[in-house]
Amino acid sequence: MTDCIFCKIINRELPASIIHEDDHVIAFMDIQPVNPGHILVVPKIHKELIAELDTDLTSRMFNIAAKINLAIRKSPIQSEGINYFLADGEAAGQEVFHTHLHIFPRFRHDGFGLKFHESYTQLPKREELDEICGNIKLSME
Ligand code: AMP
Ligand code: ZN
């Protein structure tokens, strides 16, 4: 895709600090890291949403992320924990519309966090959970 930043990185039209590359997946340093060691795992094929990838490719992305996770923990890069984050769609915070998995080191008081709505602390009734569960489950076949 011609206007896509990540396709340009894949095609070497933009610079990137590449930590992994194979025929299907590339991983490089995020230009605006939450913390040092923030990496993006990106399929080489241009697809906006993760569900558009075939399951093999999704597995490959998570396998690379797992290797990176271990590598961060073994490396001199500091981390107390590690987050995986994937914004799937604009409403979910996606800004680059070429699907990608973030993996980044975390520290207890690093200031990163998700903001919850006010009613978040109220637990839904079991019937409500069961109904939503049933609806999604039906669509899994
Ligand atoms: P998202 O909000 O999940 O779409 O995240 C997009 C991520 O891409 C952000 O964390 C950006 O900092 C990162 N990003 C944007 N442009 C570049 C670039 N040229 N090289 C590396 N990372 C980038
Ligand atoms: Zn792209």
From TrEMBL:
<protein>
    <submittedName>
        <fullName>HIT family protein</fullName>
    </submittedName>
</protein>
<dbReference type="InterPro" id="IPR011146">
    <property type="entry name" value="HIT-like"/>
</dbReference>
<feature type="short sequence motif" description="Histidine triad motif">
    <location>
        <begin position="98"/>
        <end position="102"/>
    </location>
</feature>
<dbReference type="InterPro" id="IPR019808">
    <property type="entry name" value="Histidine_triad_CS"/>
</dbReference>
<dbReference type="InterPro" id="IPR001310">
    <property type="entry name" value="Histidine_triad_HIT"/>
</dbReference>
<dbReference type="InterPro" id="IPR036265">
    <property type="entry name" value="HIT-like_sf"/>
</dbReference>
<feature type="domain" description="HIT">
    <location>
        <begin position="5"/>
        <end position="113"/>
    </location>
</feature>
<dbReference type="Pfam" id="PF01230">
    <property type="entry name" value="HIT"/>
</dbReference>
